Amino acid sequence: MRLTGPADANAVVFDPETAELAVERDGTTLVTPSELPVEKLARQLHGVDWTGAAVSVDDPAEVAETYALPKGKARERTHRAVERTVTYDHPDADGVVEVDLRAAAEGVAFRFRVTGTAMQRHTGDETTLSLPRDTATWLTPFDEAHEASARQQPIVETDGEYCTPGLFRVDDEWLLLAEAGADGDYAAARLRAEDSGPGMTFGLPQTQMNAHFPLETPWRVAITGDLADVVESTLVTDLVDDAGFDDEWVEPGRVAWSWWSESDSPDDFERQREYVDYAADRGWEYVLVDAGWPRERAAMPDLIDYATERGIDVILWTHWTDVNTESKRAERLPTWADWGAAGVKVDFMDADDQGRMQFYDDLAEAAADHELLVNFHGSVVPTGLQRRYPHVMTYEGVMGAEYYKWSTVTPEHNCTLPFTRNVVGPMDYTPVTFSADAARTTPGHELALSVVFESALQHFADSVDEYAARPEAEGFLERVPAAWDETRFVGGYPGVEATVARRDGEEWFLGSITAGPQRIVTVDCAFLVEGDAVSDEEWTAHVVRDDGEGGLESEEWTVTGEEALDVVVPENGGFAARFER
Question: How far apart are CA 314 and CA 336, in angstroms?
Answer without folding.
Answer: 10
